[in-house]
């Protein structure tokens, strides 16, 4: 039996990578409610000392309602210093084809400082430093009142997102929306994908497309 050619193997690898990317693609009406006890792919990065954790009770629906808690240290440098978390799994994919025009979530600010919440979408790479980023033009204020705020809305349309960074010539926003590689939820005073260094504790639940 003859062995596959190099060209065939390259095509096969491309198809497998594409299949792996599409397997976790965004779907309209999907929701992360954290009732399965996991963090549903939300993370800070490998070096963070305070990655997001699943809290099994105390969500917006009360006892037995699990939610995600994200803590940032506020130090001027280092992983975990900024109020930001990312997902490169089920929140990647073609937002345009799926008709996703906003991300909605319930949020609680259990810290001492009001925060300015935004979302950021990255395209071109799952590596943050190699991606083109677009972030919410307008933040959603979240007061440090220790209360759940239901249905906070973050539009993800060409009108609501602004350029927030790229390592070179930016990929056009319409192309990023058609192939989102990473989504971030963060607090930033100005449109950004990194988040501001801030000592804060965020509760988040029912993240929905």
Question: What is the number of helical segments per DSSP (H or I, 4+ residues)?
Answer: 3
Which term fits the overall shape?
Answer: globular
Order of helices and strands: HEEEEHEEEEEEHEE
Which range best describes the helical content: under 10%, 10-25%, 25-40%, 40-55%, 55-70% or over 70%? Answer: 10-25%
Oligomer: single chain
Q: Gyration radius, to the nearest Å?
A: 18 Å
Helix/strand-derived category reads mainly beta
Q: How many beta strands in the DSSP annotation?
A: 12
Cα separation of the termini: 49 Å
Low-confidence stretches: 1-23
Chain-averaged pLDDT: 89
Beta fraction: 25-35%
Most strands sheet = 6 strands, antiparallel
Notes on the protein architecture:
It is a single chain. The chain is mainly beta and 209 residues long. Helices cover 13% and strands 34% of the residues. The protein is built from 3 helices and 12 strands. The strands form 2 sheets. Strands 1, 2, 3, 5, 9 and 12 form a 6-stranded antiparallel β-sheet that branches. Strands 4, 6, 7, 8, 10 and 11 form a 6-stranded antiparallel β-sheet that branches. Strand 6 (115-123) and strand 7 (132-136) form a beta hairpin. The longest helix has 18 residues, at 6-23. The radius of gyration is 18 Å and the shape is globular.
Key descriptive features of the protein:
single chain; 209 residues; mainly beta; 6-stranded antiparallel sheet; 3 helices; 12 strands; disordered N terminus
């Amino acid at each position: 039996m003859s062995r596959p050619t190099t060209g065939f193997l390259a095509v096969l690898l491309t198809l497998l990578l594409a299949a792996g990317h599409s397997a976790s693609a965004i779907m309209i009406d999907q929701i992360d409610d954290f009732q399965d006890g996991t963090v549903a792919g939300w993370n800070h990065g490998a070096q963070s000392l305070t990655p997001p954790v699943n809290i099994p009770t105390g969500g917006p629906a009360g006892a037995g309602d699990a939610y995600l808690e994200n803590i940032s240290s506020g130090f001027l440098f280092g992983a975990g210093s900024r109020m930001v978390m990312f997902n490169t799994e089920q929140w990647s994919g073609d937002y345009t084809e799926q008709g996703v025009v906003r991300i909605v979530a319930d949020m609680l600010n259990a810290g001492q400082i009001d925060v300015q919440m935004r979302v950021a979408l990255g395209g071109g790479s799952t590596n943050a430093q190699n991606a083109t980023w677009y972030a919410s033009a307008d933040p959603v204020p979240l007061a440090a009142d220790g209360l759940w705020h239901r249905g906070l809305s973050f539009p993800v349309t060409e009108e609501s997102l602004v350029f927030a960074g790229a390592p070179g010539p930016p990929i056009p926003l319409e192309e990023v929306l058609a192939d989102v590689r990473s989504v971030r939820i963060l607090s930033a005073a100005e449109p950004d994908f990194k988040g501001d260094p801030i000592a804060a504790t965020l509760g988040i639940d029912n993240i929905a497309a």
